[in-house]
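Its record is quoted verbatim for completeness.
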Amino acid sequence: MKKGTKIDRMTMDKLAMMVARGFENTATKEDIKDMATRMDIDGLKNQIAGVNNRIDDVSMNRVKYEDHSKLKVRVDFIEKKLEIRN
C-alpha cells in the first residue's frame, strides 16, 4: 500500500445503502407481468416450431456431399454412354 493512502472502511450502514441502491433498478413482478403481456409468447412459440420443422425437413431431405458426388459420377458415365450410342 502506498504511503498516505486513506483506508475507507465498510460499515454496515454503507453496505445497507449500497444494497438498497442495487435493488432500485431491479424489476418487480408487475414489471415482468407487463413485459410478458407485451410479448406475444404464443406467436414466438409458433415461430420457433416453424423453424424447428424447417430444420428437421432440411436434415431429413438433405443429400450428403459424398453421396451427391458418387451419383454425379455415375450419371456422367451414363450420359457419356448414351452419347456414344446416338
Notes: The chain has a mean pLDDT of 84. Helices lie at 12-24, 29-38, 41-61, 65-85. The longest helix spans residues 41-61.
